[in-house]
Write a structure and sequence with these properties.
The complex is a heterotrimer of chains A (98), B (167) and C (345). By secondary structure, chain A is mainly α. Chain A is 71% helix and 0% strand. Chain A has a single domain, classed as Helix Hairpins, CATH 1.10.287.3510. Chain A has helices at residues 2-20, 26-50, 59-84. The longest helix of chain A has 26 residues, at 59-84. Chain A is elongated, with a radius of gyration of 17 Å. With 167 residues, chain B is mainly alpha-helical. Chain B contains six helices and no strands. Classes of the chains: A mainly alpha (98), B mainly alpha (167), C mainly alpha (345).
Chain lengths: 98, 167, 345
């Protein structure tokens, strides 16, 4: 159990640090977000199996549906950003600072 | 048990590959390997149905879209894990893994808790549970998918200027 | 935006918040937060200019990361305690949960996205962002508030009030000032949250009323910066006078409504033997009061005595909408009915 928990939480933390530290592309930030969602999916599935919670084994599917929505939203923002800002580099998103 | 350890290590390696800020092609490649390994982890615990769903959605659906977008947002000089900056991120991620290991894993005997349930199909009942007891959650998820469709349409149409890509 | 799509998005905003309100299970609460994030993005990019797209991207990245941390913390909690109820959290996980909710709310060390996102979107969408979008995370925070360490909440609250006051000093854009004002008010809300959740509810209620008033006023006056405020007395003189008072109410001056939650919170913190915290909160309210005072000064106190060379605004008849009048009344004159409001919560 500890081994599984270690794998999942380390994977999540890797995705989170990758998202928060310096990213060059918006797309790679979105990929980090997807990696976080992947580890959460596996964590939910493992949890429902390990605790024999039969009714919970549908919860990873709901998570997957919502994370697919999130991925679609992120990709459409990527298209919108590359239209308005010229590229998807995150350092171009500096119009609102002051 | 050995397969589980191998899959876990490969899963962490693929997440390091995503998190270490390479060019998006390589990050998408890492995430793809991670999704495949995740499917392997789930089948080791007998969740064949969830594993199949994960395989279909991640590899069949999302990663194709991500690969397409990586092609759109292309860059002339892609940086893989060999370049210095990306390699320093890899080293930092490995240090994070070591710290998490020291925080979370107390005794090495914890591997033995994984019971031997290799390839026994256990949890396919959950799908009927979802249709039976979770009807309203299914309804909400369907509504969210419809809203996501409308959101994507609203976000990407109606630009009076700009181009699809400019490197 | 087509009205049908606008209807779908607004009803999804309602669905997300009510789903989070009514859920006792972390997964459903997370789904509600995700629906909220999903539905407000097209409202932000209603006009497709680069600033709006940038604001939407920043909002999406922070909110999606915060929601993922929230779900991770609840899975961790479930792994150790075996249950998913919102109100039974173990303590170290609830710290992580509090920080994730603080990212969603824009509480001080995690507040950097809020002024930038507010600067990029329209005033009416900004009103949704600082009122309706705060409700669902605050509902979660109130449900777990008895398990959070009070030191954490007090530190977050003090940092929010101080940074909210300090950051607003240097701004000339109305929307950024209002974003920092929102950060400071949320600091007041969460610093009392552990000791007396009902008082936090009162503070939230008053904050919503005052913020709705100010945003409706700025929407009507159509002024994005401070120096365009000075010409608004010719557009609607009564509104200019009362909204200057409403700004002072937002700053918390005594005969107005905004004094009530600050008064009660300082009293309750003193009763809890936290007099230094209460003193620091009161002092940081002075920082906020400075820029509210600057806004109200340029809004209503700078009428030139002589004929001035600038062109005035075209003096069409501005009708003040009825909701704005009602909100303005509530913003200005609710202090005498403090006992009634306390008995409501």
């Amino acid at each position: 159990m500890t081994h599984i928990l270690f794998t999942i939480s380390t994977a999540f933390m890797l995705g989170l640090t990758g998202l928060t530290f310096h990213r060059t592309h918006l797309l790679s930030a979105l990929l980090c977000l997807e990696g976080m969602m992947l580890s959460l999916f596996i964590a939910l599935a493992m949890w429902s199996t390990q605790n024999d919670m039969m009714i919970f084994s549908s919860s990873p599917l709901l998570l997957l549906a919502l994370s697919a929505c999130e991925a679609g939203l992120g990709l459409s923002l990527l298209v919108a950003t590359s239209r308005t800002h010229g590229s998807d580099h995150l350092q171009n998103l500096n119009l609102l600072q002051c | 048990m050995v397969m589980m350890v191998v899959f876990s290590v490969m899963f962490l390696i693929s997440l390091i590959a995503v998190a270490s800020n390479p060019s998006p092609y390589f990050a998408a490649l890492g995430l793809m390997i991670g999704a495949g390994v995740g499917c392997g982890m789930l089948t080791q615990f007998g969740m064949t149905f969830l594993s199949m769903i994960l395989f279909l959605i991640y590899l069949g659906g999302m990663l194709v879209v991500f690969a397409y977008s990586a092609a759109l947002a292309a860059e002339p000089y892609p940086s893989a894990w060999g370049s210095l900056e990306v390699f320093s991120y890899v080293v930092g991620s490995l240090m994070l893994v070591v710290v998490m290991w020291m925080l979370l894993v107390n005794d090495f005997g914890a591997f033995d808790e994984i019971e031997g349930c290799v390839m026994s199909v256990r949890r396919y009942v959950g799908v009927s549970e979802m249709y039976n007891a979770g009807g309203y959650m299914l309804l909400v998820a369907g509504w969210v998918l419809l809203v996501a469709l409308l959101v994507v349409l609203e976000l990407t149409r109606g630009f009076g200027r700009g181009c699809l890509r400019a490197v | 935006m087509s009205p049908y799509i606008l209807f779908v998005m607004l009803s999804s905003l309602g669905l997300g918040t009510t789903l989070t309100f009514t859920s006792s299970h972390w997964l459903l609460a997370w789904m509600g937060l995700e629906i909220n994030t999903l539905a407000i993005i097209p409202l932000m990019t209603n006009k497709h200019h680069p600033r709006a797209v940038e604001a939407a991207t920043k909002y999406f990245l922070t909110q999606a990361a915060a929601a993922a941390i929230l779900l991770f913390a609840s899975i961790y909690n479930a792994w150790y305690s075996g249950q998913w109820f919102i109100q039974d959290m173990s303590s170290p996980v609830s710290t992580l949960m509090t920080l994730a909710i603080a990212i969603k709310l824009g509480i001080a060390p995690m507040h950097f996205w809020l002024p930038e996102v507010m600067q990029g979107i329209s005033i009416s969408t900004g009103l949704i962002l600082v009122t309706w979008q705060k409700l669902a995370p605050l509902a979660l925070l109130m449900q777990i508030s008895h398990n959070i360490k009070p030191e954490l909440l007090i530190i977050l609250g003090l940092m929010s009030t101080i940074i909210g006051g300090w950051g607003g000093l240097n701004q000339t854009q109305i929307r950024k000032i209002m974003a920092y004002s929102s950060i400071a008010h949320l600091g007041w809300i969460i610093s009392i949250l552990h000791f007396m959740p009902a008082l936090a509810m009162i503070n939230l209620f008053i904050y919503l009323i005052m913020t709705i008033t100010m945003f409706m006023t700025f929407n009507l006056l159509n002024s994005p910066t401070i120096n365009t405020l000075a010409m608004n007395w010719s557009k609607s003189p009564i509104l200019a006078a009362t909204s200057a008072l409403a700004l002072l109410s937002l700053g918390g001056l005594p005969p107005l409504t905004g004094f009530m939650p600050k008064w009660l919170i300082i009293q309750e913190l003193t009763n809890q033997e936290l007099a230094p915290t209460a003193t620091l909160l009161a002092l940081s309210a002075l920082l906020s009061l400075f820029f509210y005072l600057r806004l109200s000064y340029s809004l209503s106190l700078t009428i030139m005595p002589n004929t001035h060379p600038q062109t005035l605004n075209w003096n069409m008849k501005t009708t003040t909408p009825l909701p704005l009048s009602l909100m303005m009344m509530m913003t200005l004159t609710m202090l005498p009915i403090t006992p009634t409001i306390i008995s409501l919560f």
